[in-house]
Amino acid sequence: MNKIIYIILLSTLLISQTIKGGTITDGLDLANVKIAKHIDYTRVVFYVNFWEGHSKPNTPADTTGSYKFVLDENNKSIKIELSGFRSSTIKNIKQDIKIVDSIKSIEELKGEEYADDSSIFYNIVLKDKSSKIKAFTLENPSRIVLDIY
To answer: Can you give the pTM of this predicted structure?
Structure first.
C-alpha cells in the first residue's frame, strides 16, 4: 500500500504545472514586461496595449488576451504563450530582457519567434527550482501577471 502511495506522489511531482486564462481576443500589443522580487515570490508583469492596426493604437487595451504558462517537470523553466497579440513593441522580442541583480530567482527571460500572427512566446529559465506558479489578469491598464514561488 505504501509503495502505491509513493508512486502516485512521485508521478504527480514529475508532471508539469500548466495555467491558462485571460480572454480570447485579437489586435493586442505587448508593450512592456516588468519583473519585481517580493519576499516570497517573483512577479513578472506583461503590459497589454492595442496594436498599431487597432482603432486606438498604442493605448492600454481593455482586454488582456489569453495566456498559457507551463512550469516544466524539472521546475527549472517556464514556457509562456500569450495569444491575441499582433505585435510586441518591446524593442526586439528575441533580445533578452534585462534581469536586475536583485532578482535572484530568474536567470533569463527571452522571447522566441512568433508562432503565427497572433501569439507571442517567451521562455523563463529559473536559477533555482520553483515549486509553483500562479497567474491572473489586472485591468486599467490591462496586464497579465505571473507569480513564481
So the answer is: 0.82
What cell was used for 48?
497589454
* Phi and psi based region of residue 22 (left: phi greater than 0; alpha: psi -120 to 50; beta: remaining): left
Annotated domain spans of the chain: 16-148
For residue range 125-146, what is the model confidence (pLDDT) as tens digits? 998 877 789 999 999 999 999 9
| 3 state SS of 61 | coil
Q: Provide the CATH topology of domain 16-148.
A: Immunoglobulin-like (2.60.40)
Cβ-based burial of 106 (10 A; exposed 0-12, middle 13-18, buried ≥19): buried
Whether the CB-CB separation of 103 and 42 falls below 8 Å is answered with: yes
d(CA 82, CA 21): 10
